[in-house]
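User: Can you predict the 3D structure for this chain?
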Amino acid sequence: MKLSRRALLGTGSLAAATGLAGCIYHGPFPYTRLEVSVREPFDAEVPTSIPVSVDVFVQGVNSRDATLHGVELVCFDVARRELASKSLGEFAWREADPDRRESTEHDTGWFTTVTTYSADWTVDVSLEVDAVPEWLTVRVADVWFDADDRPRTAVDRGQDGGRTTGAVVGTARASSPPPEVTVSYARLASERPDSGLVEPNEYQSSRLRQHSSLENPFLPRPAAARLGHRRSDDRRERLGADLERFVVDSPYAVDPESSELRRDVVEALDDHGDSPHVVELSHTIAADVANRRLLSDQRDVLGIDLDDAIVSPVAEAGIVEDRIVGVPCTLETVALLYDREHVEEPPETVAELLEIAAHAEDTGYETSGIDYSLDRPSTYAAWVYAFGGYYYDAESDSVGLTGSGTVRGIEFVAERLAPQVTTAPTDPDDRDDAFVNGNVPFAIAGPDVAARAEANGIDVGVATLPKPADADYRPRPFVRADLLSFTSALENPEERDATAAAVAFAEWYVTNEEVQVRNADEYGTVPASAAVADSDELPESAAGFVESATTGTLEPPDSTMRTIYPPLQAAFESVLAGDRAAETALEDAEAEIEGELSGGPT
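Assistant: Here is the predicted structure, written as structure tokens:
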């Protein structure tokens, strides 16, 4: 008998029997195959219509009941979220057009024959979508090969996955039968287009030969994401355990072998050969890194609303020019730290703070005063903003050092607070950690000082900064956020499949209450998650810094402040030393800054 090309493809190789005992049956087998492809070019501007072809093949052995039931064409974005689907219905040998089906008899070599019943279809459809899909594939409800019209389950197949046929007897069994359903899906293999035509050859076909559950779409397992960090040994071990937990809690994975950065973060991102997909990054340098095209926008993939999920004002910390390049994980700001053993309630006004601090020696402290580092303008920005001043306004792209509020704020710090600071307020190398060592009742500092003081046995309270009586507003400290940032490696077509895992891990890690509360308790970190911030399990000190942050303002990016901070600090120190009036010193500082800015970024 002469066989058609399709029958030859469906039949597979035949082997002669060498005896019934221990013989291996080599086919033919029952199986089905679906192939998805883009039929014609389509417009990349959305909404758009995608012309798709689906080629279908079914084959039964000694049964005319080979059927694919409940077939759907379905497409997904890069995060594997469903964009659109279309029902293709049922593909049954009995229902196929006569000219599209065949029945062929095969000699098994065991003095018996089997008959294959095969049919094929080509279905041309269009999918209406609001985004260019990353994946085009199918979903199948059931595959039937028997007349009893029920799904083929693991029990039907046998524990070894073999399938029996009516012609096979005795101990003969299938050695390596083909899977019951084989799908060739299409994946976008080019750069993601924004305009123009998307050509069919921009979608690459890949075959998925086995699938554990017909209830799910036919897609390969998501690629693992690479995480970049520079943590200490103890925190690295904790992170490794968290990565294992993430794998258990989600269908995604993060590669633990590629996590530690042994060099500068930006250098690691510049190495496109092995760049991480997610990296820990301060929001103050995110703009610089993004402008070097080393970060990627995941606004369309992110599954959480940052305004709802992250505390203000750091919700916007990962946004650069309307691109979401990272999710805020932890935050830092200054607050009023007080020793609760001697100070029952935090002072609500600066006058009350200074009064208690000035007489600390009378209550058993080694010295009077406040532990406060004034070596960086970011640490005393709160008082400038309390008087209505500012350093830099991004919206108007203006420097504000000569404004009356800024002048009043600098004068307040120099004249009212600095005299109460215990030692060398502008020299970080000459500080004595007075609060950490229990020598003064107050500090104006961040989470690191609070954590060290608690480790030293101090019962630390954390409160918002007290308001100066003559200020227009409450103090607004600068707030800095550490981001889980998404790198430009995720824009590489060959690595884009790691996007789902990268974004899912960032969302999971930032919002996981158990992880963030534990980190706050063990390492003194302050969570940026709004839900975690409201948790009753969060340590009181961390909750105090969250409250202080909500009164603050997001610190401007380093790309701007690296030009502003040095002249501003020099002006402040000259005022502190009594060499110059605040107004004059700040006028000269602003003139210097404007000169540098007008010459372009430095």
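The chain has three domains: 5-208, 225-329+481-542, 333-477+555-598. DSSP finds 16 helices and 27 strands in the chain.
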